[in-house]
Amino acid sequence: MKRPARSAGGGAAARPGKSAPAPARRVPQGAGEVRIIGGQWKRTRLAVADRPGLRPTPDRVRETLFNWLGQDLTGWRCLDAFAGTGALGFEAASRGAVQVQLVEGDAALAAQLETVRQRLKADTVRVQRGDGVAALRQCAPGSLHLVLIDPPFDGALFQPALQAAAPALAADGFIYLEAPQAWTDEALQPLGLAVHRHLKAGAVHAHLLRRAAPVSAAVSN
């Protein structure tokens, strides 16, 4: 292949009557990868697609979450309402959860989740393309041991998701909530929830929520 003649300034010599070719358009690349931290699929890599609002839970936060939960999730039923990369849901399945529902509204991300599910032969995992809040509303009361709520930070899905998750939560179950600000017991009290654990890591506030203890009726004198 011939190389173009060079000008004195070091650039390619311009051809009379023709403009310089437009630079090639860059093909969007993936944003990296995360790894499953523990369980049967430990160290398995999950691709992070370059999609708007996609923000995988940091490794440190996921590690802390599953330390809070006690590592072994054998027999648990879980729903990841905004699955994204699937890092949280696949982590739960890797640690023994008997049923994990991954709900994702983005068609490309949902297809990627299904590809990972098949690659891992994860029979306890079900991928559903759809609305996470609607999926929570369809759950039977008290049916879930763990609900994972990590929606895009620039949306308004936190309150609706918590409202839908609270009735579906088992008496001894947990809700993991990842948000850009801390949620207090006062804000959660109308939903019948309370903060069990809280961690701030950079811009992320990670919460582990439980059902609020029932308020004892005042004894009348």
TrEMBL record:
Listed Low complexity bias regions: 13-26
Record carries keyword Protease: no
Gene3D superfamilies the UniProt entry points to: Vaccinia Virus protein VP39
Coiled coil: none
Name of the top EC class for this enzyme: transferase
Gene Ontology molecular-function annotations: 16S rRNA (guanine(966)-N(2))-methyltransferase activity
Region feature (Disordered): 1-31
Keywords: Methyltransferase, Transferase
The enzyme's E.C. designation: 2.1.1.171
Name of this chain's protein: 16S rRNA (Guanine966-N2)-methyltransferase
Record InterPro entries: RNA_MeTrfase_RsmD (IPR004398), SAM-dependent_MTases_sf (IPR029063)
